[in-house]
Amino acid sequence: MKNDLDSRQILAVYEYIQQHGDVDESGKLFEGIRAYSDPDGYTIYLEGSALLLRFGFHNTYHLDYQHEKNKEDFINKLNFIYQMANEAKE
After folding, report:
1. What is the pTM of this model?
2. What's the confidence (pLDDT) of residue 30?
3. Residue 31 half-sphere exposure, CB side, CA atoms within 13 Å?
4. Contact yes or no for 6/17 (Cβ under 8 A)
5. Handedness of CA 60, 63, 33, 90 (dihedral sign)
6. Residue 24: inside a domain, yes or no?
7. Does a structural domain hold residue 1?
8. I need a labelling partner for 63 at 20 to 30 A (CA). Which of 1, 19, 42, 78 fits?
9. Per the domain annotation, does 50 fall within a domain?
């Protein structure tokens, strides 16, 4: 799979959602992306736009989705949140 996402970006988006998202049934929700982790904290999940991203050991990730449009929408949302996270640092 082509590396569409950078591990720093994934982690920054996860942390931003954890800090600024609204609590929902399984994690925190921000701008249509849900962020949560497994009980041991070794795997984090970002979910939205009919796509699930699993990020774990060795900075590896896997995307589960049905249609390419789901992936495009999800990545656009991640890029938007990542930009917000970077602007918040300034």
Report:
1. 0.92
2. 97
3. 21
4. no
5. positive
6. yes
7. no
8. 19
9. yes
